[in-house]
Amino acid sequence: MKMRLTAKEGEELLAHGDLITLGREADKIRQQRFGNTVTFIIDRNINYTNVCVNECRFCAFFRRQGSKDAYLLSHEEILDKVRETVEAGGTQVMIQGGLYPELSLAYYEKMLRLIKKHFPSITIHSFTATEIQHFAREAGLSILDTLKRLQAAGLDSLPGGGAEILVDEVRKKVSPKKIMTDDWLHVMECAHSIGMESTATMVIGFGETMAQRIEHMEKIRRLQDKTGGFRAFITWTFQPNHTQLGGEKTSSWDYMRTLALSRLYMDNIAHIQGSWVTQGERIGQLTLGFGADDAGSIMLEENVVRAAGTLYDMSTKKMVGLIKGAGREAAQRDTEYRIIRHF
Questions:
Q1: Distance between CA atoms of 148 and 170, rounded to whole angstroms?
Q2: What is the reported pLDDT for 64?
Q3: What's the farthest any 2 CA atoms get from each other in the chain?
Q4: Which of 27, 40, 73, 264 could form a disulfide linkage to 77, CB 3.0–4.6 angstroms apart?
Q5: What is the pLDDT of residues 245-298, one digit of tens each?
Q6: How far apart are CA 242 and CA 3, in angstroms?
């Protein structure tokens, strides 16, 4: 049996490994696990508010309460967006927002119940670990009890957002008011303990070291060994435009190397997702030869990356063409990676 990569080996490959060799090895593992099928999902990102008390330096989306372009969607507006999603063939909504002060947990429970009442078939894959901790604090409840209440109201699974780089030294630099590493991991462990699965993410390009990227992967790999609750691992790149943090975008080569390494390193997480949203269609297509078995989402709406000045549009026809152009077979999936249809 092949031994898993150590942190030291992972760091060495990330810093000095040949990109094409890494891609080939990553693709070999993808092929063994998934054959020639590449999946995607049709969903919608619903950002219910852009008001956020965290004010992260890498975020171009947030506004302070009272700003002229600050907003909070009503439940009726959210239901309209879910209705449009269902009518467009979507199977999932990802509801995420800033940390709005003084909203009660009951607001979110009511939102979830209304969605499930009107659209029982939709999967609610929503709220980052950052939001969950905020809800818990506002309600004076534990993370576990907060998650149980949200699950009872209709929350199906958690997205992996808010992880950025799970190294506090980096977090204190880019998002000092945001939850720290142990908090993020604790939310995920609590969710997994009640059967609520999630994804895990990593955002690169903050000036972190290769050792810090591996430290991030190692923490997620360890938690997955313990819980088995992560469905997928998704890497994307920091979009510096219009942000307080600023700086240069990291290269597509750096992204591809990290993606391939994540397939090799995260041996206990089934799905590795490529990011056309931050990379564009061509690099998104290339990820399918570097270890990614999933092309992500046809987002009917996306606001956070767009706020940083990065905008790519996608349709089912375009997505299927992109996957087939990479020599793969395209299939639409649901949140649990079950195939809905082949193309």
A1: 31
A2: 63
A3: 60
A4: 73
A5: 555 677 889 999 999 999 999 999 999 999 876 777 888 899 999 999 999 988
A6: 44
Of 2, 36, 31, the closest CA to residue 267 belongs to 2
Q: Which residue has the tokens 């998002």?
A: 175
- What's the confidence (pLDDT) of residue 219? 98
Six-digit token pair at 139?
């309600």
Residues facing residue 43 across a β-bridge: 92, 299
DSSP string, 25-59: HHHHHHHHHHTTEEEEEEEEEEE-B-B-SS--TT-
- Please tell me the distance from the alpha carbon of residue 80 to that of residue 133, in angstroms, as a whole number: 27
Which DSSP symbol is given to 331?
E
DSSP 103-171: --HHHHHHHHHHHHHH-TT-EEB---HHHHHHHHHHHT--HHHHHHHHHHHT--BB--TT-S-S-HHHH
Low-confidence stretches of the chain (pLDDT beneath 70) = 1-2, 53-69, 239-248, 277, 299, 301-314
DSSP for residue 206 = S
Length of the chain: 343
Q: Are 235 and 259 in contact (CB under 8 A)?
A: yes
Query: What is the C-alpha to C-alpha distance for residues 62 and 250, in angstroms, rounded to an integer?
Result: 22
CA distance 189 to 258: 25
> How high is the pLDDT of residue 59?
56
Instruction: List the structure tokens of 216.
Output: 């991030």
* CA distances from residue 287 to 33, 193, 257, 313 in whole angstroms, order as listed: 16, 32, 10, 18
Burial (CB count within 10 angstroms: exposed 0-12, middle 13-18, buried 19+), residue 109: middle
Quote the tokens at residue 76: 């009726």
Amino acid at 141: L
pLDDT in tens, 200-253: 999 999 889 999 999 999 999 999 999 999 999 999 887 655 455 555 677 889
